[in-house]
Design brief:
Length: 120
């Protein structure tokens, strides 16, 4: 068996909130969208990563995912995110911090998703 990628699905009560986080803040591009479907969705991509963002109020209430994005320049990512969207910085990890397991990390949080950025 061979797997190439893991593509998570994230559910929002309002898909516009997900697009603010992934497109506006993290600069993902919309590769495909169907906002008129019974369950509106977008396929988002950046640097070989894909994520599916869906609008589904019931599933959004049941799922609060935490995602991790690895980078080789966490200081640059932090500088961009903290300058453009400082209100998204997670109160418990709002600066680049070396963790006991050796990774440097910081995190952001919107009303649905937590994203931890890591550099090993």
């Amino acid at each position: 068996m061979n797997f190439l990628k893991l593509v998570p699905s994230v559910f929002y009560a309002d898909i516009a909130e997900g697009l603010k986080l992934f497109v506006d803040c993290l600069k993902f591009t919309i590769e495909h969208k169907d906002l008129s479907a019974s369950q509106p969705y977008c396929v988002l991509g950046k640097d070989g990563i894909r994520i599916m963002v869906f609008q589904d109020e019931q599933l959004a209430k049941a799922h609060y995912p935490e995602l991790r994005l690895e980078t080789n320049n966490i200081e640059e990512v932090f500088a961009v995110v903290s300058a453009s969207h400082p209100h998204l910085l997670h109160p418990n990890l709002n600066k680049v911090t070396k963790r006991p397991w050796g990774a440097k990390e910081f995190a952001i949080l919107d009303n649905q998703v937590g994203i931890r950025f890591q550099q090993w």
